[in-house]
UniProtKB/TrEMBL annotation:
Residues 246-267 are annotated as: Disordered. Residues 249-259 have a biased composition (Polar residues). This is DUF6816 domain-containing protein. Residues 69-267 form the DUF6816 domain. It comes from Cylindrotheca closterium.
């Protein structure tokens, strides 16, 4: 029987101990990684989510907001602007030498989205329509009737008004883009406007449909007394053929300015 070289036996023992140590190291490392992952999932807060949709229509709107080209569901502001404001708007119209100065209530309300505030489009538009009637008719005594309206935060892109003369106006946002910084909120909205005049003697009325683009930039200002004011620039464009490239009419028609406004909100 041939005896084995002692040096070979020592080498085999060293290799076996090395393999055993590597296995123990890998096992302990895997256990440590698993424990760390479990602890992290336990102590790290789960991501916040918006409030659950209240109806099928709202769920569809939120889904559409995730599709490129549709944009967010609304224009969102910080909590600092929530509440009632006094709006002073100077409106310039093409062909009119002097701007109109309008004053009316303006309001921001809590959104159904978490930690967000939105403009109350219903009351704001109704008060604006009333202020326009008073300014044009020079009825400064506040005798104009505020239009009734139908608008909800769960359906912010659809606003319907019944004006003082009985005509109906619908403003529907079809596409939107927004950009927020610490002190500014910028938005671009495409809107479809449907106006249905009050019915004639036979009960007939033909609605007119137009499209416009509204560009707005809001700037939130804080003075040395910690008083907040908000300034905004708004430009409204008429969109030819309703923004539909398949509609009849010249495809080369360019948008035209309908109005330019400077808005100041104070408490």
């Amino acid at each position: 029987m041939t005896s084995q070289d002692p040096s070979l036996e020592n080498n085999n023992d060293m290799e076996w101990r090395s393999i055993t140590q590597r296995r123990k190291f890998l096992q302990s490392s895997s256990a440590a990684i698993l424990a760390t992952t479990t602890a992290a999932s336990t102590f790290l807060p789960s991501p916040s989510h918006a409030a659950a949709p209240q109806d099928a229509g709202e769920a569809i709107r939120r889904s559409a907001a995730k599709i490129p080209g549709y944009g967010p569901t609304d224009v969102f502001f910080s909590d600092a602007v929530q509440g009632s404001w006094k709006a002073t708007r100077q409106v310039e119209f093409p062909g009119r030498s002097e701007p109109l100065t309008l004053q009316y209530p303006f309001r921001f309300v809590q959104s159904i989205e978490n930690n967000a505030v939105v403009a109350d489009r219903g009351i704001n538009q109704a008060e604006l329509e009333k202020a326009l009637v008073e300014a044009v008719s020079k009825s400064n005594g506040g005798n104009a009737v505020r239009p009734s309206y139908d608008w909800t935060m769960t359906n912010p892109n659809d606003l319907r008004l019944i004006l003082a003369d009985g005509s109906k106006k619908e403003i529907k946002v079809t596409k939107r883009a927004t950009e927020n910084t610490e002190n500014t909120v910028t938005s671009s909205e495409f809107q479809r406007i449907t106006l249905e005049e009050s019915s004639d003697e036979k009960g007939f009325s033909v609605p007119s449909v137009s499209a416009r683009r509204v560009l707005t930039k809001w700037k939130i200002l804080l003075d040395e007394n910690n008083s907040t004011t908000i300034e905004a620039l708004e430009v409204v464009y008429n969109v030819p053929t309703g923004g539909d490239p398949m509609a009849a009419g010249s495809s080369n028609a360019q948008p035209s300015v309908l109005s330019k406004s400077r808005i100041l909100l104070t408490r």
